[in-house]
Amino acid sequence: MTELNQPLLDAPIAGQHMVSELGGRPWQQAPQYTTVDEAIEYYLDRMSSEEFTDQLVDVLEMDVPVTTLANTIQMAGVMDGKHSIDVGMLVMPLLMEMIMLVGDMAGVKYDSGMENPNKKRTRDTLVNAATTKLKRQLEKKESMIFDDEELGEDDVEEQEPVVIQQEEEPKGLMARRV
Amino acid sequence: MPSFGNNPALTLYRNLQVEKGEDTDVKATRGLLARGQANKVRKEMDVQQPSVRVAKHMSIIRRKRDEINDRA
């Protein structure tokens, strides 16, 4: 008889249904192409096919950067178990060059992805620095005005009170009014 | 060197530019007993390095690209 309060230690862990057995995925197996030369040959063959070229031109026309495409292609190769990540990294510049060659041959204006997208944008840090500087200047000016006002009040206090001398009105019954 | 996101392609591409070498012509020897130059040239070119081999391939493709762009 099982005790109800005993924890089930052999229960599946959360998310276990979403993963497969170790070695069940292509990238967990030994890669098909182990050398750079083999991987280059594989990609050159694949990329020279008309179907691939047409698709590539379409994607380039959509302004997808070449760097992104190259990374995606090599990553797909790793996921398919074609080559290791190391070989993919080594091959990636060649993929970029090939993609650009296809783009040039098709006469497409492509985005190489080599320009800094934030080049023409004003840096956030610069804006923050300018704002802080301006705030400090404003605070300084405000404090100066405040000091002036205080100084002004002090001056008034220090000044001798102005005595307005009123002429005494004649009080006699027969006095003439001015 | 800026890295735009997690994509290492740009850095790899720029680094490989530095390693890019010129193509060396291998002169064919005619004599039967003549020593082949292939091994010597290979050593000079340092083609044992995979990055150098990739750079060689790249230089060929780049030349082709330049030809196309010059024509246009």
Instruction: Report the sheet-strand fraction of chain A.
Output: under 5%
Q: What oligomeric state best describes the polypeptide chains here? A: heterodimer
Order of helices and strands of chain B: HHH
The pLDDT mean of chain A sits at 84
- Percent range for β-strand residues of chain B: under 5%
Mass-distribution shape of chain A? elongated
Structural class of chain A: mainly alpha
Total strands of chain B: the figure is 0
Low-confidence stretches of chain A: none
Give the radius of gyration of chain A: 41 Å
Distance between the termini of chain B: 32 Å
* Most extensive chain-chain interface: A-B, 27 and 23 residues
Architecture blueprint of SSEs:
The complex is a heterodimer of chains A (178) and B (72).
Chain A: H1 36-47, H2 50-61, H3 66-79, H4 85-106, H5 124-158
Chain B: H1 9-19, H2 38-45, H3 50-71
Characterization of the model:
The complex is a heterodimer of chains A (178) and B (72). Chain A has helices spanning 36-47, 50-61, 66-79, 85-106, 124-158. Chain A has 178 residues and is mainly alpha-helical. Chain B contains three helices and no strands. Chains A and B meet through α1, α3 and α4 of A and α1 and α3 of B.
